[in-house]
Amino acid sequence: ALTIRNAQSYGLNVKSKPVSGGASFSSEFTYPYGVRFDRTSLNKATKVVFFVDANLNGAYDAPGEEISTSNIKRGSKVSALCVGSGSCTISNVNTLDITFKRPDPNAIIKINGNTVTTYTYAEITLVSTDGGVKKVSVRSTGQINVCDNNNVCN
After folding, report:
1. Strand pairing class (77-84; 95-100)
2. pLDDT tens-digit profile of 71-81?
């Protein structure tokens, strides 16, 4: 949830595009920022990629767009990704890209590398090694929630 919020902040606050390698920034301020969740392998299911959408297609295109990769802590992993219009209606999601582009605070939600279709709701389910479940939901309005398995949200 924090990485998603960071992408939203970068996208809204006009963070400029990183120059190769991400160590410095250019004077270009028109790029969306986003996160990618990928559950296609255990190695990818334990990581979140923070990226700049340099080609403006709404999806992560490795490796030139990656700013950083974060490990999901305490042995947790992405167990499920789903999208839809207001709730989860599509659950066969392998990759989920959520981007933000100024001046609009809205989230742009795309799946499985499809750069055409956009959804209004996404949910990332995380499972810990002790069986605990957390769900991060993102709405196209920019709202980000973290809930437990009983739908008690923070």
Report:
1. unpaired
2. 998 889 999 99
Helix (H, G, I), strand (E, B) or coil at 147: strand
The beta-carbon contacts of 42-46 under 8 Å, at least 24 apart in sequence, are 42/77, 45/77, 45/78, 45/79, 46/71, 46/72, 46/76, 46/77, 46/78
Residue 24: pLDDT above 60? no
User: Which of 2-6, 31-35, 61-65, 98-102 has the lowest average pLDDT?
Assistant: 2-6
Phi, psi of 32 (to 5 degrees): -75, 155
pLDDT the model gives residue 20: 57
pLDDT at residue 27 is higher than 60: no
Give the rounded distance of the alpha carbon of 151 from its chain centre.
21
* Dist. CA 103–CA 110, nearest whole Å: 19
- Is 136 in contact with 37 (CB distance < 8 Å)? no
DSSP string, 76-111: -EEEEEEEESSS--B---SEEEEEE-TT---EEEEE
Query: Could you tell me which residue, 118 or 105, shows the higher pLDDT?
Result: 118
* Contacts of residue 67, Cβ cutoff 8 Å, sequence gap at least 6: 18, 22, 33, 50, 51, 52
Amino acid letter at 121?
Y
